[in-house]
Design brief:
The protein has helices spanning about 50-60, 95-100, 105-115, 130-145, 160-180, 210-215, 220-230, 280-294; strands spanning about 15-20, 25-35, 40-45, 65-70, 75-80, 150-155, 180-185, 190-195, 200, 205-210, 235, 240-245, 250, 255-260. It has about 290 residues and is an alpha/beta fold. The chain folds into 2 domains: about 15-85 and about 140-235, P-loop containing nucleotide triphosphate hydrolases (Rossmann fold), CATH 3.40.50; about 240-280, no CATH class. Strands 5-6-7-3-9-10 form a 6-stranded mixed sheet, with helices on both faces. Strands 2-1-4 form a 3-stranded antiparallel sheet. It has a 3-stranded antiparallel sheet with strand order 12-13-14, with no helix packed on it. The protein is globular and about 45 Å long. The protein binds adenosine-5'-triphosphate (ATP). Adenosine-5'-triphosphate (ATP) binds near residues 49, 50 and 53. It comes from Pseudohoeflea suaedae.
Length: about 290
């Protein structure tokens, strides 16, 4: 059985009463956050609530105008920003993109691409990648130097729902393999990955924090996102309640076998109200095989 990551070590990042003041106003204030090795922390909050600004204080890109921001001196950080200023009209292969701004050996680059399941795309043009492929390349770029902290600003943008679940699975696996801490930013509330240890809900300040379910239940969260927001914070759980057999049929948790799986066939629980995935699709299995081979 796999051991749970040890998240009890000393903090690798600590923000204390941190705030950023720009253009005559406080973008965020009073941010207290500690990040420990191996833990997954998700920042959620409406557009403009200060998630990226907080992440930039964690990274040291923005200096706090009040309070303090500290990082362990030897901390290697991998960062996938929300936006990249790259001229995509120029030809650029994945391989070159991986090594564009950093000294990375070909072996390190190949290993990272393999880990995120996109080794086969090394020679492809970046501008031709699909949204999901691009995010995997970005992830590979961020983990290539084996970071102790991985900061992912909206890692599932441009990715469809199935791809989103696969990416969250992958991020969880990378955390397990590298035992790195992960800071995830999401303004999209409908899925928070199950592996998230803590959710921090921002609205210019820390509005509430805790386990995903405790945040979804909190009064502050409901006030911030309204009644509509509450059922949207669906914590993605991988129930593995059925298995896809080689002949394409499906064996359910109750032992029965059917030709297909269908949400309304009575074999699945519906505890989140919204569309939620409680099983693997063949595409995910392919991704896992690909990751496993590399
Ligand atoms: N350098 C800056 N100068 C002035 N205002 C800024 C600066 N950077 C960000 N802001 C403003 O600060 C607020 C918080 O921005 P931030 O990018 O941290 O929000 P966010 O929660 O990440 O938003 P989103 O979900 O839209 O990405 C926004 O209103 C933004 O316009």
């Amino acid at each position: 059985m796999k051991q749970a990551p040890d998240t009890t070590g000393p903090a690798i990042v600590s923000l204390r009463g941190a705030g950023v003041f720009r253009s005559g106003r406080w973008l965020v204030r009073g941010i207290d956050v500690e990040i420990r090795p191996g833990e997954i922390l998700t920042l959620i909050g409406p557009n403009g609530s200060g998630k990226s600004t907080t992440a930039k204080m964690v990274l040291g890109i923005e200096k706090p105008d009040e309070g303090s921001a500290w990082r362990a001196p030897d901390l290697v950080v991998g960062y996938v920003p929300q936006k990249l200023s790259v001229d995509w009209t120029l030809p650029l292969s994945v391989e070159r993109f991986m090594r564009l701004t950093r000294s990375l050996s070909k072996a390190e680059s190949d290993a990272a691409l393999a880990r995120t399941g996109v080794a086969h795309l090394a020679g492809s043009e970046v501008r031709n990648l699909s949204g999901g492929e691009f995010q995997r390349v970005m992830l590979a770029r961020a983990i290539a130097r084996k970071p102790g902290l991985l900061v992912l600003d909206e890692p599932v943008q441009g990715v469809d729902f199935a791809g989103e679940i696969a990416l969250y699975d992958l991020i969880g696996k990378i955390r397990d393999e590298l035992n790195c801490a992960v800071l995830l930013i999401s303004h999209d509330l409908h899925v928070v990955m199950a592996a998230t240890d803590r959710v921090l809900c921002l609205n210019g300040h820390i509005c509430c924090q805790g386990t995903p379910t405790s945040v979804a239940d909190s009064e502050e969260y409901r006030q911030l996102f309204g009644a509509r927001g509450a059922p949207q914070l669906a914590v993605y759980q991988h129930h593995h309640d059925h298995t896809h057999l080689e002949d394409g049929r499906v064996r359910h948790a109750d032992g029965s076998i059917t030709a297909h799986c269908h949400p309304d066939d009575g074999h699945h629980d519906h505890d989140h109200g919204s569309h939620h995935h409680d099983h693997h699709h063949p595409q995910h299995a392919q991704d896992e095989n690909r990751e496993g081979r590399n």
